Amino acid sequence: MQGFDVSLLKNRDFRLLVLTRMCAITALQAQAIIVGWQVYSLTGSTWMLGLTGLAEAVPAIACAFYAGHIVDVSAPRKVYRLCLIGLFLNTLMLLLTAGGFIPLGTTSLLIFIFSGIFISGLARSFIMPSAFALLPRIVSREEISSAASWQTAAFQVAAIGGPTLAGLIYAFAGASGAWTFAALMSLAAWIAVVAATRMVGPASCVAAAVLPLGVWGSFRAARAAGWDGGPGESPMQWPLVGLGMALALLAIWKHRGNLRRLLEGKEPRIGQG
Question: Which domain holds residue 239?
């Protein structure tokens, strides 16, 4: 079967796989544009701008020699899930630091940015082989050619749309808006893969990790709109952010068994006993 077979989209797992891949690549491509603009605006150095590409290329190339082997000898679904949750948490870290939610000096901020780029390079090297390794488990042999065409098309849409949207958002909303877009795309990829695997425990941990950010963002929005009575920080801001962090840690601790079973490949799906 050649070309684009529309009937493939009736396959729920295949639709989610394509959506996951498109959202993940959009997040990675958006990040590449954002860090380029931000590093150059912080340093004004073309040398530092060039190092952003090197920071991602080194782990990606180094892992390329054995990433496919690891995916082959492991469970591709588990590798894919771990890559996507790592990508989301990494983008969340960049949103908090490079997005300006946590005030940092230029040197500290650059350290976080380059660390995030390095981690993204690691994730990128495993995302592609694990995604293609999942195809034979989702579609029949006769449908693999058409399925690969759909995946390639999704990649091209993300490769073009990700940088375009990130650049426009950066121009009109600044670094915080652009990083929010990248974080939402990586979160969408994680939600899609959770929907495909129907594992709710790890998704609960991700939702809990986002809670403190939501509290912080609410106070920032209220301060910007003048709802809190002045431009300064509300006296309740940090206590509530601390409470959100405590609740997030408690939720993650309560789900530690789910995370352990996820790493062992034994986490039950929704609807299973």
Answer: 198-273
